[in-house]
Design a protein that fits this description.
With 489 residues, this protein is an alpha/beta fold. It has three domains: 190 residues, P-loop containing nucleotide triphosphate hydrolases (Rossmann fold, 3-Layer(aba) Sandwich); 46 residues, no CATH class; 218 residues, Nucleotidyltransferase, domain 5. It contains 15 helices and 22 strands. It has an eight-stranded mixed sheet with strand order 3-4-5-2-6-7-1-8, with helices on both faces. A six-stranded mixed sheet has the order 16-15-12-13-14-19. The chain has a two-stranded antiparallel sheet with strand order 9-10. Strand 3 and strand 4 form a beta hairpin. Helix 12 packs across helix 15. It is globular, with a radius of gyration of 26 Å.
């Protein structure tokens, strides 16, 4: 609260008082607003949560706990939910909105705001965050004196290491698959501040670094407002991932749905060091189109796959993405490429005569549509290598820089839970930032013959024979890419 920066974000464990503090901060800034010519302190805020039910049961509930209707005036329960507080010289209007999709930005476009508050910001797309920052500093108008302070505040639990906030704050490195434009958009502005609360509990470990117990962290925030057994009882029956995110306040991920690939194991399928493409073998590229395009680069060596590069973009058309894709391909001048994409990209849009495949071709990238778009076949095409062992080695090995694909395997690419009693999930994978690179990975596998092997039972033999003990690892010296290869073609 001592910070006057334009954007302030606090990350902390569950129960640490984040939401209450942000609600109080709204009132504090409203009371600090310079009065207008009539002596009235006028301000207007938008409070955002990702879904309507959570907005009502958590965010609005906390707000009304601090500013109840019988003291601060009637709360309007018809959308948009609004609490217009008029007491003495204070005139504060608080508008509560549920926004969870980038297209929901249009709900913000007509607002003239003093400030904005995003509750549980990790669940809200960056497009919403950007849209909100463009709507503040507009109320009161400058002819009425303007806002004394204006900006955006946000609170959140910890997020995964590929989340834009984790990258911008420096809590995690940017994935190699990010485009330059995306990296530039995540450079921390000088007018933004990130804060990290202490963990709620501390793990006690033995000499071999195994967790043997937990105790309350005396440095944790908001302990005076919690029951002594709150955190010990909370920890009972929880997974290690859940504890890392919600109690230890570590960067991580809790899987809410059901992972599409439950056979994935990071220690088995993620390489311990960077991978390099195998010389003399075609590089296969799987591409998914749309405004969140993705490309995955890999090779099939015998019955084993290596995936060594991902390219993931957001809010980018096919023309711009084709240039990004071409730039990555240029980094491997000694290789021949086979590019396979989403078959739906072979159809013309009503507003444009060019298909995505035509656009790729005009950029010098000949590409072919995948032989199937059956989601069951595509998923099974990845299941095969994932479950396969070849002479004791995994059938699929992924470069550690492919963060989006890896997090997708670990649960980001998932079947969404249906909000009913019991364990029920949707029939198709949830469309999110992880589904697009995984779609591209599936097209890659289909291009390598995995789909044919499933439907016919035949073993697809590539047009080369590699020794079984090939090494896909690379070693770098003086920034020159070198390959250490055991065996030869």
């Amino acid at each position: 609260m001592k910070d006057d920066n334009f954007v302030r974000i606090v990350r902390g464990p569950i129960g640490s008082g984040k939401t209450a503090s942000c609600c109080v901060e709204i009132m504090r800034r409203a009371l600090a607003q310079e009065p207008d010519k009539k002596g009235i302190r006028r301000s207007r805020w938008a409070v955002i949560r990702n879904t309507g039910p959570e907005l009502k049961t958590t965010t609005i509930k906390t707000w009304l706990d601090w500013f109840p209707e019988n003291t601060w005036g009637r709360f309007m329960w018809s959308p948009p939910y609004t609490h217009h507080i008029k007491r003495g010289r204070l005139d504060l209007e608080v508008i509560f909105l549920a926004l969870d999709r980038p297209e929901d930005v249009k709900k913000l476009l007509s607002l003239e705001l003093t400030g904005g508050y995003i509750n549980e910001a990790r669940e809200v797309p960056k497009a919403i965050f950007d849209g909100l920052t463009s709507r503040v500093r507009r109320f009161p108008s400058m002819r009425e004196g303007g806002p004394t302070w204006s900006g955006v505040i946000a609170d959140t639990n910890s997020m995964s290491d590929d989340h834009w906030m984790a990258i911008m704050a420096g809590w995690a490195p940017p994935p190699n698959g990010m485009t330059k434009r995306e990296r530039d958009a995540l450079v921390l502005p000088k007018s933004w501040s990130f804060y990290v609360q202490p963990p709620a509990m501390i793990a006690r470990r033995d000499d071999e670094d195994r967790v043997i117990g937990m105790e309350i962290n005396p440095e944790a925030e908001n302990l005076m407002n919690l029951h002594d057994s709150y955190y010990p009882d909370l920890a009972a029956g929880k997974t290690a991932d859940w504890m890392d995110v919600y109690v230890f306040n570590k960067i991580g991920r809790v899987v809410e749905g059901r992972p599409v690939y439950r056979d994935f194991d990071r220690s088995t399928h993620v390489a311990s060091e960077p991978l390099a493409p195998f010389p003399g073998v075609d590089i296969l590229v799987g591409v998914d189109f749309g405004l969140t395009p993705a490309a995955v680069f890999g090779q099939k060596i015998g019955r084993r796959w290596i995936v060594f590069r991902e390219l993931v973009a957001s809010d980018m058309g096919t023309v711009a993405f084709a240039e990004e894709l071409k730039a990555v391909m240029a980094e491997y001048p000694d290789f021949r490429f086979r590019v396979t994409g989403d078959p739906s990209g072979d159809f013309r849009a009503q507003t444009d005569e060019k298909t995505p495949f035509m656009i790729l071709k005009s950029a010098g990238i000949p590409a072919q549509p995948a032989n199937s778009n059956d989601p069951v076949l595509r998923i099974d095409a990845v299941h095969g290598p994932l479950q396969r062992l070849v002479d004791g080695n995994p059938g699929l090995l992924i470069d550690p820089s492919c963060v989006t694909i890896i997090v997708g395997f670990e649960g980001g690419y998932q079947y969404k839970r249906i909000r009913v009693t019991g364990e029920r999930y949707e029939d198709s994978p949830n469309k999110n930032q992880y589904s697009h690179p995984h779609d591209a990975l599936q097209y890659l596998m289909l291009a390598g013959g995995e789909g044919k092997a499933i439907t016919t039972g035949a073993t697809v033999t590539p047009p080369f024979i590699a020794k079984r003990n090939f090494s896909p690892y690379e070693h770098r010296k003086a920034n020159i890419r070198r390959h250490t290869i055991s065996g030869r073609i």
